[in-house]
């Protein structure tokens, strides 16, 4: 199933892949079926949905894409959009993420996609990883169907995970505590997951799990992809077993979190088009506040517009990037929420909003000690923190 909002005058199509973790064995898929049925079956899906963020048809909420044809593809395959296995004697569940995308494309061709100029395959979280895994395949499918003129691009939001070492190692019991590499390794076998051929060739047989990690698959992609990633992604911290609830963060965790931001920043340095704010959050492009976040004075819709233009221009003449229209935007400040435009943080227990300083104190951040390390007066450091410099 999918949801479609047609925009008759437009030759731009935006296909959005929903996210929502995954399950990788019989037990945790059974649990998922009991507790999150809408992510495993279309039976209770609503007849219509309202698009928000980049799927909104309101120009003030979605300045550059509001009148595109919008397609929302709900996530019911639990396989990071990679599966290609039907239900069988051996398998209670069908995992068909990769096939669902192909079928939707086939059907949309008859609904106007055949005359499209641009198809933007976007997704958040597991849907963001799904974009990386499927964008080239969508381009190949359209070419084989004889639609060479459609420019296929990807927009991956919060799907650029690291296969780093967990803060505390845990056995792979459930989806949340299992280290990402182990979960994907098991998942690929369980889903009969497929990864793009060009990425697969980089790794030995049995090592295909590598292609689920952005920095490993990105260099093999043919289609242009814009990567949106919080430097301190909550889902990444969760699988790394850093839990920021209630009690102050210990120094080891604090160093781990800062290091995570550094590692992530490093993996994005060769990504041509990227937007990476130093915030603690997860998912952004379908949030209605997505226009508020800025990196180095540029908002995400503006950066995407610049990217659109740069692709348009480079098709013409291969010129240098457009002046005053940046597309490689990565925060350089070192800790969560050092960017003043980050979304508001709420205390998970009280629901109270916190400012940056309250948040850092709540996390056990020692202003005196940090100021000393930086060679600053504590009051000066607090001033810098609250202004985000």
UniProtKB/TrEMBL annotation:
GO function terms (MF aspect): palmitoleyl hydrolase activity
A GO BP annotation: negative regulation of canonical Wnt signaling pathway
UniProt-listed InterPro entries: PAE/NOTUM
Source species, domain of life: Eukaryota
Similarity remark: Belongs to the pectinacetylesterase family. Notum subfamily.
Protein's name in the database: NOTUM carboxylesterase
